[in-house]
Amino acid sequence: xxxxxxxxxxxxxxxxxxxxxxxxxxxxxxxxxxxxxxxxxxxxxxxxxxxxxxxxxxxxxxxxxxxxxxxxxxxxxxxxxxxxxxxxxxxxxxxxxxxxxxxxxxxxxxxxxxxxxxxxxxxxxxxxxxxxxxxxxxxxxxxxxxxxxxxxxxxxxxxxxxxxxxxxxxxxxxxxxxxxxxxxxxxxxxxxxxxxxxxxxxxxxxxxxxxxxxxxxxxxxxxxxxxxxxxxxxxxxxxxxxxxxxxxxxxxxxxxxxxxxxxxxxxxxxxxxxxxxxxxxxxxxxxxxxxxxxxxxxxxxxxxxxxxxxxxxxxxxxxxxxxxxxxxxxxxxxxxxxxxxxxxxxxxxxxxxxxxxxxxxxxxxxxxxxxxx
Length: 373
What we know:
This protein is mainly alpha-helical and 373 residues long. The protein folds into two domains: 1-81, no CATH class; 82-354, Na+/H+ antiporter like fold (Up-down Bundle), CATH 1.20.1530.20. The protein is 72% helix and 1% strand. It has 17 helices and two strands. It has helices at residues 2-26, 34-48, 58-72, 89-102, 110-114, 116-126, 129-141, 145-156, 162-169, 174-199, 208-218, 220-233, 238-262, 264-295, 300-311, 315-324, 333-354, and strands at residues 79-80, 83-84. The chain has a two-stranded antiparallel ribbon. Helix 1 packs antiparallel against helix 2.
């Protein structure tokens, strides 16, 4: 009861801080509102932890607090001494991909043989819907070329690990979700550069072979190392299994903060419109992914899976690609915005579906299937 009172009090404090920050903003004192907004998100994150239905939003709320810090105090997130913090992005992505590799096994690919139609439809939807929608929105946005290319980039990226968690919460087909994520990620070194060349070539120059190698370094090598580690030390390094999800979440948050600080000026100029376009991109991913699967007469739980796989992209990988091209402050903005937004919309959609059990649903074995996701 005391713990519940603490979380309820935190939400009450958050409401008060929100009113204060809105008052400062509407009276023209937005420069003074920074610390209040930061503490608002921190209090809200603490409050969410006390309620099962809201607990999943705590991490995203903490990211918003960190993003506000980066917007108000960017100097602390650009360099440390002579070291540029953008230099951390690729190693962090490699650590995240290594963690994905340690959680993968042959079981993740069994669905290819059990339900090849579901995997095929999911992969086609993944590399058809979001790239096409990204190109359409980038063309319509009239943004500067590099920022427009970032919208296409997030669409051309594979699904992320968050989709697996949401698939479990949404009572979708978890095994199919894991398989689509794994295969789409392994195909990314080929399909992402190819699609970027075709769709983003009008915005910026794309070195397709160079991008293939950059993505391979961020995906294939660390995932391969993770698979080997899992083969040799499965069940022998529980501390690492426990630590990697925390490291991954911290790494994703740091990547978003560094990008926000680097692209602060551009984000302040176009932030509201970029958020709107990214939100449209995300929601259309869910909607078109679901109905694309239903078009092929897939059962509802499989259609839910495809919807989440299509709508939830690997923003970290997209950020790494933008960084490797030296365009993190512009091309990296759309991926940085997409990550927190998709976690909010994904949680809302998963919660909605969780209350509506689809036909043929069987509770999955969590242990071993989502142990590191």
